[in-house]
Model the fold of this input.
Amino acid sequence: MSHDVVVIGAGISGLSCAHDLMSQGYDVRILERQATTGGNARSVRFDGFLMEQGPSTLNVAYPSAIDHIRKLNLENTAHELGPEVRKRYLRDKRGLHAISVHPLGFFLSGYLSLGDRLAMACEFLQPRKSDTVEETIYQFASRRFGAGFASKIIEPLAAGLFMGNSKSLSVAGTFPKLMELEQRHGSIMRGILAAKRGSQPGRRLLSWENGIGTLSQNLTQRLGANIYTGTAVLKLRRISSGFEISTANAGSIQTRAVVLAVQPHVAAALLEDLDPESATAAGAIPAPSIAVTYLGYHRDQVAHKLDGLGFLSTRNEGQIISGAQFCSTMFDKRAPANHVSISCYIGGSRNPELTNLPDVELSNLVNGELSGLLGITGSPVVSRTHRWPRGLPQYTLGHGNRRKVIETAHKRVPGLFLTGNFLKGVSIINCLDSAKDTARLVDASLGKKHEFDTGNESTSYMA
Done:
């Protein structure tokens, strides 16, 4: 039997793309190697606690996010951040520093030196970039805001958002809107202020009672029998009617179009013979391993108020934790009554070797580090660690060119498309928007004339 579209990979990107196409009347089959769907968007509840093994929030600062969850009838059941999220915390070798969420928080905080704050204030006076030489996030931030800001704020931000290194990540790949603001307004601060006129300031983060996995569960239910889990794809072959897909346990499947919604190293292997250019580009995207260690405590074990999202860490010798989230503060029902929960993120570009430590050793190291930062006494009530051997894709220098090669695969091999968090952004909203764009391209390729909502592009700001 032949299908209109086969989507390989049932993470958020693959599920969303398949759902869009099925909604347009296409015959879609989804193949997933794992026994479950959702990719890294997994929420696990145990003993009254809820652990997010991957992403934990949906950024709805932009209308496209609301459009996505509204179509899934999830808007009314979404929860905003809890009222106790009042501060942001950064950690350096001196310890934790509380910074107000007020727009002037960094200027009023003692975390940055007077010289650092003066350099920030002079951002308005810095000339816009005139050459086309690609910059890292660190280089861009140093040029606009000063080296202190780049080291003390941008470096931990890169580790927190991407589990990456600000000195190797491309600003064009990770924060393209900041480059646009500089070129359009001559100043990042001037551009941000202009963008916020007439709009609600701030950043809205949502989730659901049962976690971010609610999104993938909803999509999985909607797609139903069209999803084949436990089905490993071995090879893609071009045939006259489209493609033949060889699987390990479901025989051969024919389809008019293929969407690869898999990790970049998997895409590289499948495309080696079919589209060597895309295979090379995808294979050049690193994704160092990550571990998420989740700890639960009795509330009276923790002296800190936990009155923020969590904390991000500058790079310090000997540290384990790149960033942490105060889960039970962010959303209700993430821990039993009189308990709190904290998720800690280890590995990535900074120290991927730490993810190989045994669970007990890693938990003890993380608990020891948290104890000094948050005034914790005793051992956690619960401790769980989840490892991602392939973590977040790193948008290193040259990512823009790699992305262009991958996104034009359908021009070299008609009917072949790729989508996922290794192209336009690693957040949930980036994946949803990218999947929608891919579905639009597939629709145009197959010749059906359907209308897709345009939506708005989402991005990440330093907020």
About this structure: The first strand starts at residue 2 and ends at 8. DSSP finds 17 helices and 19 strands in the chain. Residues 428-446 form the longest helix (19 residues).
